Protein 1
Amino acid sequence: MAGGPEDDHGGQAAGRLGRRSHRGGRNGRWGTAIRVPGLAALNRGGGVTEVLTVSCASAGNCAAGGYYFDRPDHHTWFVAVERNGRWGTAIQVPGLKTLNKGTDGVDINGEISVSCVPAGACAAGGYYTDASDRGQGFVTGGWHPLGARSP
């Protein structure tokens, strides 16, 4: 699985995801990249979006994270989950809207990281800008590409 930026040259953008098939281990082939479902709708600020991190619990069960513009000149992080080979709709990192109050939002030169374990649970971490324009760390987790959110 790989991710990256996309700009559709119309001021809107949608991050893309590509898949390497798991047929035959090392002899697998990369599949066609797709737009992250729902990311264009989140990107109300009209800037470039980018997938920065992808992690898979198993083949076809992955999570991705990156950034988009929730309003002009204000970035924020998203996550998307793939279950059984189908990507779900991208969402803003849960809980981040109430925290991310700085003038520019998240620093797109900053970091977000997603990690999934074979048991299926995923977590993400990174940083955002608070109302005083100071960088603050965040973590979120408990969501599962393989099933429901954990308790």
Note: The longest strand covers residues 61-71.
Protein 2
Amino acid sequence: MLSKNQYLAIIAVAMFGLWGCSKGTSDPANAEKVKSLEAKVAKLEDEYRSALSQRDQVRKKLTLAEEDQAKLNREITTLQKSLAEKDEIIKLRTTERDFVRGEYDGFRNSLRELINKADENLKPKIEGRNDKTNPAPPIGLVLSPSK
């Protein structure tokens, strides 16, 4: 336990501490320094608020840019699929065209062969006729203009 003297000493020290803290400083240099530091703190708080608002704006722009990028990526994949389908269609059409061209060339060649055979079959009959009264019929097909 503490004695009365010790209690009185503790109370006296506390009283002097309170008196010293409440007295403050009356030094004009310190007052100027405090004012300049308060001004600095206010300026830094304004800069901090400005930086926060800029950060929020940049975050919004970043979010918009990410959404645009995702949209463009989806569009790219759609276009790539469409392009692959078109390439497939082009290959199919090219194959069909080549097949039809081959069929057409074969048809033309067979027609030529038939015409040549027909001409060769007519040649012996025509060579036997040399009289001027009975002229030979023309060789090959003769197309008459349509009216």
Note: The mean pLDDT is 85.
